[in-house]
Design brief:
globular; alpha+beta; 6 helices; 2 domains; Nuclear Transport Factor 2, Chain: A; 55% helix; 5-stranded antiparallel beta sheet; 222 residues
């Protein structure tokens, strides 16, 4: 006959074994179902400091005195490459059709997209004044990003409210989207590209990007 003490000991052992099994199971499920691309969210203060520094550098590059236009353009291109995740933005702007491109075509498309962004937006930033750009706040956005909120003063009007979606990419702060008055630049570009692709395919889109890049030039700051 089994004693009561033995039964209690067996019960305690079974309970410990069950708890151990449960912990192992939870750990295994966590590993299995945690997304592979999960990444640390940027710190709010560091994300704001990143934006302030980027604005300062952009202002210096675009308003540099005594430098040739080509030199200013090179500096601004470097800022885009370092401050924006152009590859990610280009992929999102193209949408599901990105997967239909072969690797060499993807590389050409990203290069065309980057030059298109430079040619389109650099002239608008010619008179950019960092003193009018104010970082006001930062808050989590989505699972991986920090939305840095800014006010940009305008002549004779209320400030433009813009949000800069910042993400850590290989440990570096990168902008993956700009939201102006509630409108996403990346998604807006995606709608425009979708219309072009629907009519002429991805090859038609790349021809359009190439044509616009060749036609537009970076104008000197006023």
């Amino acid at each position: 006959m089994v004693s009561s003490q033995t039964l209690i000991s067996q019960h305690n052992y079974a309970a410990r074994a069950l708890r151990w099994f449960a912990l192992v199971l939870v750990f295994a499920l966590t590993v299995l179902f945690t997304p592979a691309d999960a990444a640390e969210r940027p710190d709010a203060e560091r994300a704001k400091a990143f934006m302030n520094q980027l604005v300062k550098d952009a202002g210096a590059a675009l308003t540099a005195k005594g430098q040739r236009l080509e030199h200013r353009e090179q500096k601004f291109r470097a800022l885009l490459r370092d401050g924006f995740d152009m590859s990610f933005i280009a992929r999102v702007a193209l949408g599901k059709r990105w997967r239909t491109l072969a690797p060499p075509e993807q590389k050409i498309y990203i290069d065309l997209f980057s030059r298109f962004v430079l040619s389109t937006y650099a002239p608008r930033l010619g008179g950019f004044d960092p003193a009018r750009f104010h970082v006001t706040d930062a808050s989590p956005k989505g699972r991986r990003d920090m939305l840095v909120k800014t006010d940009i003063e305008q002549d004779g009007g209320s400030a433009v409210k813009a949000g800069w979606r910042v993400r850590l990419v290989d440990g570096k702060h990168k902008i993956v989207d700009i939201i102006v008055e509630g409108i996403s630049m990346t998604l807006n570009q995606r709608r425009e590209f979708g219309s072009v692709v629907q009519k002429g395919g991805v090859s038609g889109l790349m021809e359009m990007l190439r044509a616009r890049t060749e036609r537009l030039s970076v104008e000197p700051p006023s």
